Amino acid sequence: MKILLASDSFIYQTSGVANVVIALAEGLRQRGNEVKVLALSNDMHSRREGDNYFIRSAKSVFYPDVRINLVHHNGLLTELKEWQPDIIHLHTEGSVARMTYHLADETGAPLVMTTHTDYAHFIFGRYRSRRPVQKLMTEWGNLVYKRAARVIAPSEKAKRFIQLKSVRDRIVVIPNGIPLSHYQKPVAAEEKAELFRKAGLEDSGNTLVMVTRLSKEKNIAEILKYMPGLLERNPRAQLILVGDGPDRERLEEMTRQEGLEAHVRFMGRIPPEEVYRFYAMGDVFVSASTFEVHSLSYLEAMACGLPLVCREDDCLLGVLADGENGRIYRTEGEYLDAVTEILQDPELRGRMRQNALKRIQDFSEERFVDNTYALYREVLNGQ
Hints:
Blueprint: E1 2-6, H1 16-30, E2 34-40, E3 47-49, E4 52-55, E5 57-59, E6 67-69, H2 75-83, E7 87-90, H3 95-107, E8 111-114, H4 119-124, H5 131-145, E9 148-153, H6 156-159, E10 171-173, H7 189-199, E11 207-211, H8 220-233, E12 238-242, H9 248-257, E13 264-268, H10 275-279, E14 284-287, H11 296-303, E15 308-311, E16 326-329, H12 332-344, H13 346-359, H14 365-380
Parallel strand pairs: 1-2, 1-7, 2-4, 7-8, 8-9, 9-10, 11-12, 11-14, 12-13, 14-15, 15-16
Antiparallel strand pairs: 3-4, 5-6
């Protein structure tokens, strides 16, 4: 099968969407399919790298980590048109979407779309439930998804996004998956000790870890806000933040103002193939985000055997079973109780580790790719 995957984010960006597209491309190719990827470049030049096609782009004025396409016509797009894909799978509503709609119209290839973002939440925040916002998002969604034969929602939460209201009859829920072998690698005691030494921390068995984009919608500030209360209960507690983003400077300043420099480390952006080492430093994975659709970092942490402590959110359905592979919290008190209990009880932590390793089998890359490929076949067969 000839499959074109299209996304604003790919190998030049570090994001959950990029990781999903990378995993899908690799998995489909391993199954003998001919796969090409259309994405934005990280500079002002268009180019082809093997079967990956990059269209020149510039940084968005409104959101620095987002890139926008600068052209509507390009020789690389003509090449993709002449290739005649059997099916096109679009992973963005942004710049690449315009090019992809045109390719679908020109080639007659059926279009599948995946929605990765709750745009009402992202753009309007607490005003997202107001009637004018709901009407606007519904109309926008009808315009964006009207060409799609199927729309993939990575979770039941995503299925209920306002922008998908007009396409409910075409939605299919397919959870994201990760390559488990990339995360389930041994980390020698000496290597782990060296990582702690470089971070200027002690391997005390009281380490919280977050792997996330440092942006306001991830609500990382809440975890920092709760840190003083945690230290009152457990003076050896420490937090490792892996990732980068537009909110880093504010979060670092907050860390200084709260006097948390000795207990919090910002590790910056880590190559994806190295991230498993930093999960190995942690004893508990924590998150306060209610913005997630189907967070890959939650899955990665589970693959590494970490208990999860996460703020209550529908994205956790099927992922985090409260009391089994972690804890769900709603208040600061519940968060402090959950983290303290898990850190202080090795037997509980061990049970949660085993439950996490068992549950993550439902979110393997193999299952994700198989389910997506089966959907392609259904679309092509007119089902």
